[in-house]
Protein backbone atom coordinates (compact mmCIF):
# COMPACT_ATOMS: atom_id res chain seq x y z
CA UNK A 1 0.00 0.00 0.00
CA UNK A 2 1.64 3.18 -1.19
CA UNK A 3 -0.93 5.82 -0.29
CA UNK A 4 0.24 8.27 2.36
CA UNK A 5 -1.89 9.96 5.01
CA UNK A 6 -2.95 13.15 3.27
CA UNK A 7 -4.39 14.57 6.50
CA UNK A 8 -1.11 14.47 8.41
CA UNK A 9 0.27 17.98 9.05
CA UNK A 10 3.87 19.13 9.19
CA UNK A 11 5.09 20.23 12.59
CA UNK A 12 6.12 23.89 12.62
CA UNK A 13 7.78 26.00 15.28
CA UNK A 14 6.48 29.49 15.93
CA UNK A 15 9.61 31.53 15.24
CA UNK A 16 8.03 34.93 15.76
CA UNK A 17 4.73 36.38 16.92
CA UNK A 18 3.64 39.88 15.92
CA UNK A 19 0.68 41.56 17.59
CA UNK A 20 -1.02 43.29 14.66
CA UNK A 21 -4.25 44.68 16.11
CA UNK A 22 -6.69 43.78 18.89
CA UNK A 23 -7.08 39.95 18.76
CA UNK A 24 -5.06 39.77 15.52
CA UNK A 25 -1.64 38.12 15.42
CA UNK A 26 0.89 37.08 12.82
CA UNK A 27 2.88 33.88 13.29
CA UNK A 28 6.11 33.23 11.47
CA UNK A 29 6.42 29.44 11.21
CA UNK A 30 9.45 27.31 10.44
CA UNK A 31 9.47 23.59 9.66
CA UNK A 32 10.84 21.33 12.41
CA UNK A 33 11.86 18.79 9.79
CA UNK A 34 14.68 19.96 7.53
CA UNK A 35 13.66 17.63 4.70
CA UNK A 36 10.09 18.96 4.78
CA UNK A 37 11.43 22.52 4.70
CA UNK A 38 13.60 21.64 1.72
CA UNK A 39 10.74 20.00 -0.18
CA UNK A 40 8.24 22.78 0.54
CA UNK A 41 7.26 25.48 -1.89
CA UNK A 42 4.11 27.48 -2.52
CA UNK A 43 2.73 30.19 -4.71
CA UNK A 44 0.96 33.37 -3.83
CA UNK A 45 -2.75 32.94 -3.15
CA UNK A 46 -2.44 29.43 -1.74
CA UNK A 47 -3.62 28.55 1.76
CA UNK A 48 -3.09 25.98 4.47
CA UNK A 49 -4.74 24.32 7.44
CA UNK A 50 -3.12 25.28 10.72
CA UNK A 51 -3.38 22.95 13.73
CA UNK A 52 -3.61 23.82 17.37
CA UNK A 53 -3.24 20.20 18.51
CA UNK A 54 -6.01 19.29 20.91
CA UNK A 55 -8.40 21.88 19.46
CA UNK A 56 -8.36 21.28 15.71
CA UNK A 57 -7.48 22.98 12.45
CA UNK A 58 -8.30 26.37 10.94
CA UNK A 59 -7.92 27.53 7.37
CA UNK A 60 -5.92 30.68 6.61
CA UNK A 61 -4.07 31.94 3.59
CA UNK A 62 -0.30 31.96 3.56
CA UNK A 63 0.25 35.64 4.23
CA UNK A 64 3.94 35.77 3.35
CA UNK A 65 5.41 35.94 -0.12
CA UNK A 66 6.90 32.89 -1.84
CA UNK A 67 9.89 35.08 -2.62
CA UNK A 68 10.74 35.10 1.10
CA UNK A 69 12.18 31.64 1.68
CA UNK A 70 12.62 29.55 4.80
CA UNK A 71 9.36 30.33 6.56
CA UNK A 72 5.67 30.98 6.09
CA UNK A 73 3.52 33.50 7.88
CA UNK A 74 -0.15 33.51 8.73
CA UNK A 75 -2.25 36.27 10.22
CA UNK A 76 -5.45 35.43 12.08
CA UNK A 77 -8.08 36.94 14.27
CA UNK A 78 -9.16 35.15 17.43
CA UNK A 79 -12.68 34.01 16.55
CA UNK A 80 -13.26 30.43 17.67
CA UNK A 81 -11.79 27.48 19.51
CA UNK A 82 -8.80 26.86 17.29
CA UNK A 83 -7.83 30.51 16.83
CA UNK A 84 -8.23 31.13 20.59
CA UNK A 85 -5.86 28.26 21.25
CA UNK A 86 -3.40 29.52 18.62
CA UNK A 87 -3.57 32.99 20.14
CA UNK A 88 -2.46 31.53 23.49
CA UNK A 89 0.71 30.08 21.98
CA UNK A 90 4.14 31.53 22.56
CA UNK A 91 7.23 31.79 20.42
CA UNK A 92 8.90 28.37 20.34
CA UNK A 93 5.62 26.47 20.58
CA UNK A 94 4.76 23.84 17.98
CA UNK A 95 1.74 23.96 15.69
CA UNK A 96 0.70 21.95 12.63
CA UNK A 97 0.48 23.01 9.02
CA UNK A 98 -0.96 21.23 5.98
CA UNK A 99 -0.57 22.77 2.57
CA UNK A 100 -0.07 24.56 0.35
CA UNK A 101 -3.54 24.02 -1.06
CA UNK A 102 -5.61 25.64 -3.78
CA UNK A 103 -4.81 27.67 -6.86
CA UNK A 104 -2.88 30.93 -7.05
CA UNK A 105 -2.85 34.44 -8.39
CA UNK A 106 -1.49 34.27 -11.96
CA UNK A 107 0.98 37.11 -11.43
CA UNK A 108 3.13 36.24 -14.44
CA UNK A 109 0.13 37.07 -16.62
CA UNK A 110 0.14 40.59 -15.19
CA UNK A 111 3.59 41.54 -16.52
CA UNK A 112 3.49 45.06 -17.91
CA UNK A 113 0.20 45.89 -16.20
CA UNK A 114 -0.84 48.26 -13.43
CA UNK A 115 -2.01 46.63 -10.20
CA UNK A 116 -4.69 47.98 -7.87
CA UNK A 117 -5.03 46.20 -4.53
CA UNK A 118 -8.17 46.86 -2.50
CA UNK A 119 -8.30 45.30 0.97
CA UNK A 120 -10.43 45.68 4.05
CA UNK A 121 -9.66 44.80 7.67
CA UNK A 122 -8.33 41.33 8.32
CA UNK A 123 -8.46 40.56 4.57
CA UNK A 124 -5.18 42.33 3.87
CA UNK A 125 -3.17 39.17 4.73
CA UNK A 126 -3.98 37.25 1.49
CA UNK A 127 -3.19 40.34 -0.57
CA UNK A 128 -0.07 41.07 1.46
CA UNK A 129 1.40 37.84 0.05
CA UNK A 130 0.72 39.06 -3.49
CA UNK A 131 1.89 42.60 -2.74
CA UNK A 132 5.29 41.45 -1.50
CA UNK A 133 5.53 38.91 -4.29
CA UNK A 134 4.93 41.70 -6.83
CA UNK A 135 7.18 44.21 -5.04
CA UNK A 136 9.97 41.62 -5.06
CA UNK A 137 9.43 41.41 -8.85
CA UNK A 138 8.84 45.17 -9.13
CA UNK A 139 10.20 45.44 -12.72
CA UNK A 140 7.41 43.22 -14.02
CA UNK A 141 4.68 45.73 -13.25
CA UNK A 142 3.83 49.34 -13.94
CA UNK A 143 1.95 51.38 -11.30
CA UNK A 144 1.13 49.63 -8.03
CA UNK A 145 -1.70 51.11 -5.97
CA UNK A 146 -2.84 49.78 -2.60
CA UNK A 147 -6.09 50.86 -0.97
CA UNK A 148 -6.46 49.53 2.55
CA UNK A 149 -9.25 50.27 4.95
CA UNK A 150 -10.02 49.21 8.50
CA UNK A 151 -12.61 50.05 11.10
CA UNK A 152 -10.15 52.13 13.13
CA UNK A 153 -6.50 53.09 13.16
CA UNK A 154 -5.92 50.48 15.83
CA UNK A 155 -7.45 47.76 13.63
CA UNK A 156 -4.96 48.26 10.78
CA UNK A 157 -2.70 45.23 10.40
CA UNK A 158 0.96 45.23 9.29
CA UNK A 159 1.43 48.78 10.60
CA UNK A 160 5.21 48.73 9.99
CA UNK A 161 4.79 47.45 6.46
CA UNK A 162 2.21 50.14 5.72
CA UNK A 163 4.89 52.70 6.67
CA UNK A 164 7.36 50.92 4.40
CA UNK A 165 4.94 50.97 1.45
CA UNK A 166 4.06 54.59 2.21
CA UNK A 167 7.73 55.52 1.98
CA UNK A 168 8.32 53.74 -1.33
CA UNK A 169 8.17 55.99 -4.37
CA UNK A 170 7.08 53.04 -6.51
CA UNK A 171 3.94 52.33 -4.46
CA UNK A 172 0.84 54.48 -4.21
CA UNK A 173 -0.64 53.62 -0.80
CA UNK A 174 -4.00 54.93 0.36
CA UNK A 175 -5.02 53.99 3.90
CA UNK A 176 -8.47 54.82 5.20
CA UNK A 177 -10.42 54.21 8.38
CA UNK A 178 -14.17 54.19 8.90
CA UNK A 179 -15.65 57.49 10.12
CA UNK A 180 -15.07 57.65 13.86
CA UNK A 181 -12.11 55.28 13.65
CA UNK A 182 -9.52 58.05 13.27
CA UNK A 183 -7.26 59.31 16.06
CA UNK A 184 -5.70 62.75 16.62
CA UNK A 185 -2.83 63.22 14.18
CA UNK A 186 -4.20 60.64 11.67
CA UNK A 187 -2.90 61.60 8.26
CA UNK A 188 -4.71 58.94 6.24
CA UNK A 189 -8.18 59.13 4.84
CA UNK A 190 -11.46 58.83 6.72
CA UNK A 191 -14.21 56.98 4.85
CA UNK A 192 -15.34 53.56 3.67
CA UNK A 193 -13.31 51.69 1.08
CA UNK A 194 -15.77 51.76 -1.87
CA UNK A 195 -16.11 55.58 -2.07
CA UNK A 196 -12.37 55.97 -1.46
CA UNK A 197 -11.72 53.72 -4.47
CA UNK A 198 -14.23 55.67 -6.53
CA UNK A 199 -12.60 59.01 -5.62
CA UNK A 200 -9.16 57.58 -6.42
CA UNK A 201 -10.53 56.76 -9.87
CA UNK A 202 -7.91 54.21 -11.03
CA UNK A 203 -7.77 53.82 -14.82
CA UNK A 204 -9.02 50.39 -15.87
CA UNK A 205 -6.89 50.15 -19.00
CA UNK A 206 -4.16 47.56 -18.74
CA UNK A 207 -4.92 47.24 -15.02
CA UNK A 208 -5.68 44.29 -12.76
CA UNK A 209 -7.70 44.85 -9.60
CA UNK A 210 -7.44 42.54 -6.56
CA UNK A 211 -10.21 42.88 -4.02
CA UNK A 212 -10.33 41.18 -0.65
CA UNK A 213 -12.35 42.12 2.37
CA UNK A 214 -15.47 41.50 4.39
CA UNK A 215 -18.51 40.50 2.27
CA UNK A 216 -20.10 43.97 2.53
CA UNK A 217 -16.93 45.71 1.35
CA UNK A 218 -16.60 43.34 -1.61
CA UNK A 219 -20.27 43.71 -2.43
CA UNK A 220 -20.03 47.52 -2.57
CA UNK A 221 -16.57 47.73 -4.16
CA UNK A 222 -17.29 45.51 -7.17
CA UNK A 223 -19.95 47.87 -8.62
CA UNK A 224 -17.53 50.78 -8.19
CA UNK A 225 -14.87 48.94 -10.18
CA UNK A 226 -17.46 48.01 -12.81
CA UNK A 227 -18.50 51.67 -13.04
CA UNK A 228 -14.86 52.68 -13.47
CA UNK A 229 -14.69 50.28 -16.42
CA UNK A 230 -12.90 47.24 -14.99
CA UNK A 231 -14.06 44.12 -16.87
CA UNK A 232 -14.92 41.11 -14.66
CA UNK A 233 -11.96 39.19 -16.11
CA UNK A 234 -9.56 41.79 -14.64
CA UNK A 235 -10.93 41.67 -11.10
CA UNK A 236 -9.55 38.98 -8.79
CA UNK A 237 -10.58 37.96 -5.31
CA UNK A 238 -9.94 35.08 -2.94
CA UNK A 239 -12.68 33.19 -1.08
CA UNK A 240 -12.42 31.75 2.38
CA UNK A 241 -15.24 29.24 2.67
CA UNK A 242 -15.28 26.97 5.67
CA UNK A 243 -13.08 23.93 5.04
CA UNK A 244 -12.07 20.81 6.91
CA UNK A 245 -9.88 18.89 4.48
CA UNK A 246 -8.54 21.40 1.95
CA UNK A 247 -8.32 18.50 -0.49
CA UNK A 248 -11.67 18.51 -2.30
CA UNK A 249 -13.24 15.73 -0.24
CA UNK A 250 -14.98 16.94 2.93
CA UNK A 251 -17.58 18.78 0.87
CA UNK A 252 -18.18 21.96 2.81
CA UNK A 253 -16.52 24.58 0.60
CA UNK A 254 -18.53 23.58 -2.49
CA UNK A 255 -19.82 26.57 -4.38
CA UNK A 256 -21.78 25.02 -7.18
CA UNK A 257 -19.61 22.29 -8.66
CA UNK A 258 -16.50 24.30 -7.74
CA UNK A 259 -14.37 23.30 -4.77
CA UNK A 260 -13.05 26.54 -3.29
CA UNK A 261 -10.17 24.51 -1.85
CA UNK A 262 -9.14 23.10 -5.25
CA UNK A 263 -10.50 25.35 -8.02
CA UNK A 264 -10.07 28.41 -5.79
CA UNK A 265 -9.56 30.17 -3.49
CA UNK A 266 -8.55 32.66 -6.21
CA UNK A 267 -11.32 33.54 -8.66
CA UNK A 268 -11.90 36.30 -11.16
CA UNK A 269 -15.17 38.14 -10.90
CA UNK A 270 -16.07 36.61 -14.26
CA UNK A 271 -15.67 33.13 -12.73
CA UNK A 272 -17.64 34.06 -9.62
CA UNK A 273 -20.46 35.38 -11.78
CA UNK A 274 -20.88 31.87 -13.20
CA UNK A 275 -21.18 30.26 -9.75
CA UNK A 276 -24.04 30.34 -7.25
CA UNK A 277 -23.39 33.05 -4.66
CA UNK A 278 -22.77 30.53 -1.88
CA UNK A 279 -19.60 32.08 -0.46
CA UNK B 1 -18.77 -11.46 -19.32
CA UNK B 2 -19.64 -12.83 -15.94
CA UNK B 3 -19.21 -16.50 -15.18
CA UNK B 4 -22.47 -17.92 -13.80
CA UNK B 5 -23.06 -20.73 -11.32
CA UNK B 6 -25.84 -22.24 -9.27
CA UNK B 7 -25.22 -21.71 -5.55
CA UNK B 8 -27.53 -24.03 -3.60
CA UNK B 9 -28.80 -22.55 -0.35
CA UNK B 10 -27.36 -25.58 1.44
CA UNK B 11 -23.88 -24.58 0.24
CA UNK B 12 -23.90 -21.13 1.80
CA UNK B 13 -22.60 -22.30 5.15
CA UNK B 14 -19.70 -23.99 3.37
CA UNK B 15 -19.00 -20.70 1.57
CA UNK B 16 -19.21 -18.73 4.82
CA UNK B 17 -16.91 -21.23 6.55
CA UNK B 18 -14.40 -21.00 3.71
CA UNK B 19 -14.43 -17.20 3.86
CA UNK B 20 -14.00 -17.27 7.65
CA UNK B 21 -11.14 -19.76 7.33
CA UNK B 22 -9.50 -17.32 4.94
CA UNK B 23 -9.55 -14.76 7.78
CA UNK B 24 -12.49 -12.72 6.55
CA UNK B 25 -15.26 -11.20 8.59
CA UNK B 26 -18.71 -11.61 7.01
CA UNK B 27 -21.18 -8.77 7.44
CA UNK B 28 -24.75 -9.56 6.47
CA UNK B 29 -28.23 -8.21 7.17
CA UNK B 30 -29.57 -9.64 10.42
CA UNK B 31 -32.76 -9.02 12.30
CA UNK B 32 -31.91 -7.76 15.76
CA UNK B 33 -34.09 -5.76 18.09
CA UNK B 34 -36.61 -5.21 15.33
CA UNK B 35 -34.09 -3.68 12.94
CA UNK B 36 -32.41 -5.19 9.92
CA UNK B 37 -28.79 -4.06 9.86
CA UNK B 38 -25.42 -5.39 8.73
CA UNK B 39 -23.78 -7.42 11.48
CA UNK B 40 -21.02 -10.03 11.66
CA UNK B 41 -22.39 -13.52 10.99
CA UNK B 42 -20.92 -17.03 11.08
CA UNK B 43 -23.69 -18.96 9.36
CA UNK B 44 -26.34 -18.37 6.73
CA UNK B 45 -29.08 -19.06 9.29
CA UNK B 46 -28.24 -15.74 10.95
CA UNK B 47 -28.92 -13.78 7.77
CA UNK B 48 -32.28 -12.03 7.68
CA UNK B 49 -34.71 -14.13 5.68
CA UNK B 50 -36.87 -11.34 4.40
CA UNK B 51 -35.76 -7.75 3.99
CA UNK B 52 -35.90 -5.02 1.41
CA UNK B 53 -33.11 -2.83 2.76
CA UNK B 54 -31.07 -2.32 5.88
CA UNK B 55 -31.77 1.03 7.54
CA UNK B 56 -28.13 2.10 7.64
CA UNK B 57 -26.01 1.82 4.52
CA UNK B 58 -23.10 -0.49 3.78
CA UNK B 59 -20.75 2.47 3.31
CA UNK B 60 -19.57 2.13 6.89
CA UNK B 61 -17.49 -0.88 5.83
CA UNK B 62 -15.22 1.48 3.88
CA UNK B 63 -16.03 4.83 5.48
CA UNK B 64 -16.73 4.39 9.19
CA UNK B 65 -18.76 6.83 11.27
CA UNK B 66 -15.62 7.69 13.21
CA UNK B 67 -12.09 6.99 12.12
CA UNK B 68 -8.75 7.89 13.67
CA UNK B 69 -6.50 9.89 11.34
CA UNK B 70 -3.61 10.46 13.75
CA UNK B 71 -2.57 10.54 17.41
CA UNK B 72 -0.59 13.24 19.16
CA UNK B 73 1.11 13.66 22.51
CA UNK B 74 1.57 17.18 23.82
CA UNK B 75 4.71 18.21 25.71
CA UNK B 76 6.39 21.47 26.63
CA UNK B 77 7.22 23.20 23.33
CA UNK B 78 6.86 19.85 21.60
CA UNK B 79 4.30 17.71 19.83
CA UNK B 80 4.78 14.03 19.12
CA UNK B 81 2.64 13.21 16.10
CA UNK B 82 1.89 9.61 15.15
CA UNK B 83 0.34 8.56 11.86
CA UNK B 84 -2.68 6.25 12.13
CA UNK B 85 -2.69 3.06 10.12
CA UNK B 86 -6.09 2.25 8.63
CA UNK B 87 -7.66 -0.66 10.47
CA UNK B 88 -8.76 -2.60 7.41
CA UNK B 89 -10.10 -5.98 8.45
CA UNK B 90 -10.66 -8.36 5.51
CA UNK B 91 -14.42 -8.24 5.11
CA UNK B 92 -17.10 -9.75 2.91
CA UNK B 93 -20.33 -7.80 2.62
CA UNK B 94 -23.02 -10.40 2.02
CA UNK B 95 -26.54 -9.61 0.97
CA UNK B 96 -26.24 -5.92 0.23
CA UNK B 97 -28.58 -4.73 -2.49
CA UNK B 98 -27.30 -3.76 -5.95
CA UNK B 99 -28.05 -0.09 -5.25
CA UNK B 100 -25.78 -0.11 -2.24
CA UNK B 101 -23.04 -2.07 -3.94
CA UNK B 102 -22.90 0.60 -6.63
CA UNK B 103 -22.76 3.33 -3.98
CA UNK B 104 -19.10 2.62 -3.26
CA UNK B 105 -18.28 4.00 -6.71
CA UNK B 106 -19.65 7.39 -5.72
CA UNK B 107 -17.52 7.38 -2.56
CA UNK B 108 -14.46 6.36 -4.54
CA UNK B 109 -14.99 9.26 -6.95
CA UNK B 110 -14.60 11.78 -4.14
CA UNK B 111 -11.95 10.02 -2.09
CA UNK B 112 -9.68 9.53 -5.09
CA UNK B 113 -10.48 12.14 -7.73
CA UNK B 114 -7.33 14.07 -6.92
CA UNK B 115 -5.23 13.04 -3.94
CA UNK B 116 -5.82 9.47 -2.76
CA UNK B 117 -7.45 8.75 0.59
CA UNK B 118 -5.44 6.00 2.21
CA UNK B 119 -8.05 5.14 4.82
CA UNK B 120 -10.86 4.57 2.34
CA UNK B 121 -8.61 2.75 -0.11
CA UNK B 122 -7.21 0.35 2.47
CA UNK B 123 -10.72 -0.63 3.51
CA UNK B 124 -11.93 -0.99 -0.07
CA UNK B 125 -8.96 -3.20 -0.87
CA UNK B 126 -9.89 -5.46 2.05
CA UNK B 127 -13.56 -5.52 1.05
CA UNK B 128 -15.40 -7.99 -1.18
CA UNK B 129 -19.07 -7.67 -2.00
CA UNK B 130 -21.56 -10.48 -2.52
CA UNK B 131 -24.69 -8.59 -3.49
CA UNK B 132 -28.15 -10.09 -3.59
CA UNK B 133 -30.56 -8.92 -6.28
CA UNK B 134 -34.03 -7.79 -5.28
CA UNK B 135 -37.18 -9.86 -5.56
CA UNK B 136 -39.10 -7.32 -3.49
CA UNK B 137 -39.29 -3.55 -3.40
CA UNK B 138 -41.13 -0.86 -1.55
CA UNK B 139 -42.43 2.61 -2.44
CA UNK B 140 -39.13 4.27 -1.53
CA UNK B 141 -37.12 2.30 -4.14
CA UNK B 142 -36.16 4.16 -7.33
CA UNK B 143 -32.92 2.54 -8.55
CA UNK B 144 -34.15 2.34 -12.13
CA UNK B 145 -34.58 6.13 -12.22
CA UNK B 146 -30.88 6.67 -11.56
CA UNK B 147 -29.26 4.14 -13.87
CA UNK B 148 -29.36 1.15 -11.57
CA UNK B 149 -31.67 -1.82 -11.28
CA UNK B 150 -32.78 -4.58 -8.93
CA UNK B 151 -30.49 -6.99 -10.76
CA UNK B 152 -27.63 -4.60 -11.52
CA UNK B 153 -24.19 -6.14 -11.14
CA UNK B 154 -22.39 -2.80 -10.71
CA UNK B 155 -20.24 -2.72 -7.61
CA UNK B 156 -20.68 -6.40 -6.68
CA UNK B 157 -17.87 -8.93 -6.91
CA UNK B 158 -20.47 -11.68 -6.98
CA UNK B 159 -24.15 -10.97 -7.51
CA UNK B 160 -26.61 -13.57 -6.26
CA UNK B 161 -30.17 -13.66 -7.50
CA UNK B 162 -32.64 -15.88 -5.63
CA UNK B 163 -33.87 -18.91 -7.61
CA UNK B 164 -35.59 -22.11 -6.56
CA UNK B 165 -33.39 -23.86 -3.97
CA UNK B 166 -30.64 -21.25 -3.91
CA UNK B 167 -29.10 -18.52 -6.00
CA UNK B 168 -27.94 -17.77 -9.47
CA UNK B 169 -24.38 -16.53 -8.88
CA UNK B 170 -22.81 -14.08 -11.32
CA UNK B 171 -19.08 -13.93 -10.63
CA UNK B 172 -17.95 -10.54 -11.83
CA UNK B 173 -14.46 -9.62 -10.70
CA UNK B 174 -11.11 -11.13 -9.68
CA UNK B 175 -12.21 -10.68 -6.04
CA UNK B 176 -15.33 -12.67 -6.88
CA UNK B 177 -13.35 -15.42 -8.58
CA UNK B 178 -11.04 -15.60 -5.56
CA UNK B 179 -14.04 -16.22 -3.30
CA UNK B 180 -15.29 -18.98 -5.62
CA UNK B 181 -11.84 -20.55 -5.51
CA UNK B 182 -12.01 -20.65 -1.70
CA UNK B 183 -15.16 -22.79 -1.80
CA UNK B 184 -15.00 -24.65 -5.11
CA UNK B 185 -17.55 -27.27 -4.06
CA UNK B 186 -20.18 -24.72 -3.16
CA UNK B 187 -20.63 -23.38 -6.67
CA UNK B 188 -22.25 -25.73 -9.17
CA UNK B 189 -22.54 -25.42 -12.93
CA UNK B 190 -25.34 -23.12 -14.04
CA UNK B 191 -28.07 -25.31 -15.57
CA UNK B 192 -29.33 -22.26 -17.50
CA UNK B 193 -31.11 -20.47 -14.66
CA UNK B 194 -33.34 -17.52 -15.40
CA UNK B 195 -32.48 -14.27 -13.60
CA UNK B 196 -35.77 -12.95 -12.26
CA UNK B 197 -35.90 -9.79 -10.20
CA UNK B 198 -38.65 -7.44 -9.09
CA UNK B 199 -39.80 -4.73 -11.44
CA UNK B 200 -39.00 -1.19 -10.24
CA UNK B 201 -40.84 1.41 -12.31
CA UNK B 202 -38.97 4.51 -13.45
CA UNK B 203 -40.21 7.43 -11.33
CA UNK B 204 -38.65 10.39 -13.13
CA UNK B 205 -36.49 11.34 -16.09
CA UNK B 206 -33.05 11.73 -14.53
CA UNK B 207 -31.18 13.19 -17.54
CA UNK B 208 -34.06 15.62 -17.80
CA UNK B 209 -33.76 16.45 -14.10
CA UNK B 210 -30.02 17.10 -14.41
CA UNK B 211 -30.65 19.40 -17.38
CA UNK B 212 -33.56 21.10 -15.62
CA UNK B 213 -31.45 21.87 -12.55
CA UNK B 214 -29.20 24.10 -14.67
CA UNK B 215 -31.84 26.83 -14.64
CA UNK B 216 -33.76 25.98 -11.50
CA UNK B 217 -31.36 27.26 -8.83
CA UNK B 218 -33.46 30.28 -7.86
CA UNK B 219 -36.73 28.36 -8.06
CA UNK B 220 -39.23 28.44 -5.17
CA UNK B 221 -39.56 24.65 -5.07
CA UNK B 222 -36.49 24.25 -2.83
CA UNK B 223 -38.16 26.37 -0.20
CA UNK B 224 -41.49 24.59 -0.64
CA UNK B 225 -39.99 21.12 -0.48
CA UNK B 226 -37.82 21.85 2.54
CA UNK B 227 -40.33 23.73 4.67
CA UNK B 228 -40.77 20.72 6.92
CA UNK B 229 -37.11 19.67 6.93
CA UNK B 230 -35.76 19.76 10.49
CA UNK B 231 -32.12 19.52 9.40
CA UNK B 232 -31.50 16.35 11.42
CA UNK B 233 -29.10 14.88 8.86
CA UNK B 234 -30.63 11.38 8.99
CA UNK B 235 -30.80 11.30 5.17
CA UNK B 236 -27.05 11.84 4.95
CA UNK B 237 -26.18 9.35 7.67
CA UNK B 238 -28.12 6.49 6.04
CA UNK B 239 -27.05 7.41 2.50
CA UNK B 240 -24.68 4.99 0.72
CA UNK B 241 -23.10 7.84 -1.26
CA UNK B 242 -23.04 10.79 1.16
CA UNK B 243 -19.35 11.34 1.70
CA UNK B 244 -19.09 14.76 3.38
CA UNK B 245 -17.13 14.56 6.60
CA UNK B 246 -15.88 16.55 9.54
CA UNK B 247 -12.45 16.42 11.14
CA UNK B 248 -12.54 16.76 14.91
CA UNK B 249 -10.21 16.52 17.87
CA UNK B 250 -10.66 14.21 20.84
CA UNK B 251 -8.02 15.28 23.31
CA UNK B 252 -7.04 16.51 26.73
CA UNK B 253 -4.03 18.51 27.90
CA UNK B 254 -1.70 15.54 27.41
CA UNK B 255 -2.75 14.63 23.90
CA UNK B 256 -5.36 12.80 21.93
CA UNK B 257 -6.56 11.90 18.48
CA UNK B 258 -7.67 13.62 15.33
CA UNK B 259 -10.76 11.89 13.98
CA UNK B 260 -12.80 11.92 10.83
CA UNK B 261 -16.56 11.67 11.35
CA UNK B 262 -19.60 11.64 9.08
CA UNK B 263 -21.19 15.01 8.55
CA UNK B 264 -24.21 16.41 6.72
CA UNK B 265 -24.72 19.44 4.51
CA UNK B 266 -28.18 19.68 6.08
CA UNK B 267 -27.00 21.38 9.25
CA UNK B 268 -26.35 25.12 9.63
CA UNK B 269 -22.87 24.61 11.11
CA UNK B 270 -21.67 22.84 8.00
CA UNK B 271 -20.77 26.03 6.14
CA UNK B 272 -20.77 28.61 8.97
CA UNK B 273 -17.76 30.95 8.74
CA UNK B 274 -15.84 32.07 11.83
CA UNK B 275 -17.11 35.60 11.16
CA UNK B 276 -20.71 34.46 11.59
CA UNK B 277 -21.40 34.73 7.85
CA UNK B 278 -23.09 31.62 6.46
CA UNK B 279 -23.19 30.96 2.68
CA UNK B 280 -26.11 28.54 3.14
CA UNK B 281 -28.02 29.94 6.07
CA UNK B 282 -31.51 28.62 5.26
CA UNK B 283 -32.77 25.04 5.18
CA UNK B 284 -33.98 25.68 1.63
CA UNK B 285 -30.42 26.48 0.51
CA UNK B 286 -29.15 23.36 2.24
CA UNK B 287 -31.82 21.13 0.71
CA UNK B 288 -31.03 22.59 -2.70
CA UNK B 289 -27.34 21.82 -2.12
CA UNK B 290 -28.21 18.20 -1.36
CA UNK B 291 -30.18 17.81 -4.58
CA UNK B 292 -27.69 19.73 -6.74
CA UNK B 293 -24.69 17.96 -5.29
CA UNK B 294 -26.10 14.58 -6.20
CA UNK B 295 -27.81 15.37 -9.50
CA UNK B 296 -25.92 18.33 -10.97
CA UNK B 297 -22.45 18.72 -9.44
CA UNK B 298 -21.64 15.01 -9.33
CA UNK B 299 -22.49 14.48 -13.03
CA UNK B 300 -20.54 17.61 -13.94
CA UNK B 301 -17.52 16.75 -11.87
CA UNK B 302 -17.36 12.94 -11.89
CA UNK B 303 -19.59 11.94 -14.79
CA UNK B 304 -21.85 9.94 -12.48
CA UNK B 305 -24.73 10.52 -10.10
CA UNK B 306 -24.37 10.93 -6.36
CA UNK B 307 -27.50 8.85 -5.81
CA UNK B 308 -28.23 5.16 -6.26
CA UNK B 309 -31.99 5.26 -5.67
CA UNK B 310 -31.94 3.03 -2.59
CA UNK B 311 -34.58 5.16 -0.87
CA UNK B 312 -32.95 4.92 2.55
CA UNK B 313 -33.25 8.70 3.03
CA UNK B 314 -36.97 8.57 2.35
CA UNK B 315 -37.45 5.70 4.81
CA UNK B 316 -35.35 7.40 7.49
CA UNK B 317 -36.81 10.89 7.20
CA UNK B 318 -38.70 11.78 10.41
CA UNK B 319 -40.90 14.30 8.57
CA UNK B 320 -41.66 12.10 5.55
CA UNK B 321 -39.76 13.95 2.87
CA UNK B 322 -39.80 11.70 -0.16
CA UNK B 323 -36.76 12.09 -2.38
CA UNK B 324 -38.31 10.32 -5.32
CA UNK B 325 -41.36 12.59 -5.30
CA UNK B 326 -39.29 15.73 -4.82
CA UNK B 327 -37.00 14.78 -7.68
CA UNK B 328 -39.93 13.96 -9.92
CA UNK B 329 -41.32 17.41 -9.17
CA UNK B 330 -37.96 19.07 -9.81
CA UNK B 331 -37.64 17.25 -13.13
CA UNK B 332 -40.85 18.76 -14.41
CA UNK B 333 -40.92 21.95 -16.40
From TrEMBL, chain A:
UniProt-listed Pfam families: DHODB_Fe-S_bind, NAD_binding_1
Domain FAD-binding FR-type: 7-107
Keyword Iron tagged: yes
A GO biological process held by the record: pyrimidine nucleotide biosynthetic process
Cofactor(s) the record lists: [2Fe-2S] cluster
Keyword Endoplasmic reticulum: no
MF terms (GO), sorted A to Z: 2 iron, 2 sulfur cluster binding; flavin adenine dinucleotide binding; metal ion binding; oxidoreductase activity
Residues given in the record as [2Fe-2S] cluster binding sites: 245, 250, 253, 261
Cofactor binding note from Swiss-Prot or TrEMBL: Binds 1 [2Fe-2S] cluster per subunit.
Designated name of the protein: Heterodisulfide reductase subunit F
Organism of this sequence: Mesoterricola silvestris
Gene name in the database record: hdrF
UniProtKB/TrEMBL annotation, chain B:
Molecular-function GO terms, alphabetical: iron-sulfur cluster binding; metal ion binding
UniProt keyword terms in alphabetical order: Iron, Iron-sulfur, Metal-binding
Top-rank taxon, per record: Bacteria
Domain 4Fe-4S ferredoxin-type: 219-250, 298-326
Listed InterPro entries: 4Fe4S_Fe-S-bd, 4Fe4S_Fe_S_CS, Helical_ferredxn
Pfam families in the cross-refs: Fer4_22
SUPFAM superfamilies linked to this entry: alpha-helical ferredoxin
PANTHER family associated with the record: ANAEROBIC SULFITE REDUCTASE SUBUNIT A
Protein name listed in UniProt: 4Fe-4S ferredoxin
Species whose genome carries this gene: Mesoterricola silvestris
Lineage start: Bacteria, Pseudomonadati, Acidobacteriota, Holophagae, Holophagales
